[in-house]
Amino acid sequence: MTLLPHITFDTGKHPQHSIIWLHGLGADGEDFLPIAEEMRLPVPVRYIFPHAPMRPVTLNGGFVMRAWYDIYAAAPSGGLALESERQQDEAGIRSSQAEIEKLIAQERQRGVKPRNIYLAGFSQGGAIVLHTGLRHSEQLGGVVALSTYLPLSASLAHEAAGTARHMPIFMAHGRSDPIIPFALGRASAQQLRESEHPLEWHEYAMPHSVCQEEVRDIEHWLTQRVIGDS
Hints:
The protein contains 6 helices and 9 strands; from the N terminus they run E-E-H-E-E-E-H-E-H-E-H-E-H-E-H. The protein is of the alpha/beta class. A 7-stranded mixed beta sheet has the order 1-3-2-6-7-8-9, sandwiched between helices. A two-stranded antiparallel ribbon has the order 4-5. The mean pLDDT is 92.
């Protein structure tokens, strides 16, 4: 099984919890390593930070960069606008889903239980972890989706795994985000809540970024769950 290149960071010996954390457009797996090093969870954790494939991004004039999928166009006012599934790179999204499934399978082979595997991601990475976690055949420990939205949302009703109905979701967004509009993130959270997915929503006075208050909230949310899973 060929895996995406990735960084692995264990916070202690013999971790029984894994967090697969995806970066945003144009970044790489190093992006969230400092946050993982800063967080203090009560059990040893294996963090996995994959590097997205290099691909041309239409929105950026075809410039080749690390991206989980292509982005075709921006809204007239700037930022991302999705009016239909046709405006999304479905093939790219599903290809990245398959790559994350391989990383989940690797952790399963290492003996980590599905309920102890978490997916986290920022922006594009957040979209992929939402998409993947909701469709995974076994219930994962949870999904942390930051400054992002629900991709291919129209297909979720018939593709969502039954076990995903009980999977906890942490969603957070900056109220002044110019890249992925706050309203788009909040609408995605509302769709998931209406479908009765257990979701915790956080919002912050920030742009398309991560703030210290958000990191502490993520730490608290994960702490509650890894203690319960241990």
